[in-house]
Design brief:
- This protein has 215 residues and is mainly alpha-helical.
- It has a single domain, classed as Heme oxygenase-like (Heme Oxygenase, Chain A, Up-down Bundle), CATH 1.20.910.
- Helix content is 79%, strand content 0%.
- The protein is built from eleven helices and no strands.
- Helix 1 packs across helix 8, helix 3 packs antiparallel against helix 11 and helix 5 packs across helix 10.
- The radius of gyration is 17 Å and the shape is globular.
- It starts with a helix and ends with a helix.
- 36% of the residues are buried.
């Protein structure tokens, strides 16, 4: 079994809940209430800064230039098309500056703290553990509903297409392969730390979806 499959299996119910959440189902159907989407986007946008720092830290700690290039290319997507998607969605959904910058919800604070912890650890494997969860969860829910329904507004449809398809599949395959590659050389203690980081990230992903759906 691949190490990343082992980690996913360890996450158990949290992983299943995060990748089959009713929030995602209703988003794909176009039935998600817009107030829930507004809450979600405003909270999710608060992740971007720490995610960029985490991904940049992983790039800096990659073993070789070849190992860093796919992450650098993905960083350009996050700071380019994905960032623009948020700004366009805020405008389309009538969200003023106050609506775009609400107080952070508890899962938002938790995941931002986890990303900051991983980025500052100086340990590539811990950075990868969080990155793999963050992106693999999204690929897992978005792939079954891609391509999106033709009548979906862009703030639903593009959130699916940003997280599915060949390009994003390549991102997740790259991140998983990096973690799979470093796993055999880790000590038992280090593997346990990676497992703990992965499980914390998966639980926070589930809690974030739950909070968005309850908003």
């Amino acid at each position: 079994m691949r190490p990343t499959d082992h980690l996913r299996d360890l996450a158990g119910e949290d992983w299943i809940a995060a990748t089959t959440h009713p929030f995602c189902t209703e988003l794909a159907d176009g039935t998600l209430p817009l107030d829930k989407m507004r809450w979600y986007l405003a909270q999710d946008y608060q992740f971007v800064g720490n995610f960029v720092r985490l991904l940049a830290s992983a790039i800096a700690h990659a073993p070789t230039l070849a190992d860093s290039v796919p992450a650098a290319q993905f960083l350009a997507v996050v700071t380019g098309p994905e960032n623009t998607y948020f700004l366009r969605s805020f405008e389309a959904l009538g969200m003023d500056a106050a609506a775009q910058t609400p107080p952070a919800a508890s899962p938002t604070e938790g995941f931002n703290a986890l990303m900051a912890e991983a980025a500052s650890s100086g340990r590539y494997e811990l950075m990868l553990a969080v990155l793999v969860v963050a992106e693999w969860v999204y690929l897992s829910w978005a792939t079954p509903v891609n391509p999106p329904k033709e009548d979906l507004p862009f703030y639903f449809a593009e959130w699916i297409t940003l997280h599915a398809g060949e390009g994003f599949e390549g991102v997740v395959a790259y991140l998983r392969s990096q973690l799979d590659a470093v796993w055999p050389d880790l000590s038992d203690a280090a593997k346990s730390e990676v497992e703990a980081m992965f499980l914390r990230a998966a639980k926070l992903e589930r809690q974030f979806w739950d909070a968005a759906y309850a908003s």
